[in-house]
Specification:
Length: 166
Amino acid sequence: MTRAEAVYIPEIIKGFGTTLRHFFTSFGQGRTSRAMQYPEVRREDLPVVDGGLNASNFRGVHRLNRDERGRVKCVACMMCPTICPARCIHIEAAESPWDDREKYPAKFEIDELRCIYCGMCEEACPVDAIELTPVYDVVGGSRQEMVFDKEKLLHVYDVTINRKPM
Ligand code: SF4
Ligand code: SF4
């Protein structure tokens, strides 16, 4: 730091200047305005993650993908709960009722409140069965409501397939 920076006063004045500039421009549709009338106005320009080219890699609520026959794609390999740093995925594997795989998830739950949205489950899945979606405004009236079960995760797939194709 220079001597001027070391006394902080010029930096504090510069900081106030930036705050005032944002304050006055936020009243109009100015370049730096960030205020939105949510939920009437929703944010569509989602932040890009990890240097991606668009927001398709935004890490929001999970979905469980379906295969071409509409079945859950997951083969209950347990890779995602093993790698999950938040320990928020709970799977109960069972013998598959279909002859093209050995196992399937009889029960699949993700605690969306414990999740840190790191995306490691998506990276670890060998069959692209679990993905994070652009859905960011999920709410629940209780903690239990935020534990998404298999049906809820498949429903997220159904409503996001057009926004984030596989
Ligand atoms: S995004 Fe990360 S924390 Fe969340 S369920 Fe996947 S691995 Fe776990
Ligand atoms: S990694 Fe994929 S296939 Fe394995 S349990 Fe998780 S979602 Fe299922």
